[in-house]
Specification:
alpha+beta; 1 helix; about 70 residues; 4-stranded mixed sheet
Length: about 70
């Protein structure tokens, strides 16, 4: 009946881009943001399942097309 309103956390869309880093050896995936100018990556959360990825996308209001994958 009463649900919590989900807050969308803003991020600096002009300077940061959403990235998923994936390890070639272990397959471990980490979602975060990379600074476009410096290349510095800041981790936000570990991705273990598809639900974790969906949570990351919903939390920051990102579409799946915006996310790039790096190895």
């Amino acid at each position: 009946m009463f649900r919590k309103k989900e807050k969308k956390c803003p991020y600096d869309r002009e300077n940061l881009k959403p990235v998923i880093r994936s390890s070639i050896c272990t397959g471990e995936q980490v979602a975060g943001f990379q600074n476009i100018h410096t290349g510095k990556f800041s981790e936000v959360m570990l991705i273990r399942t598809g639900g974790d990825l969906e949570e990351f996308l919903e939390t920051y209001g990102i579409s799946p097309a915006e996310v790039t994958k790096e190895y």
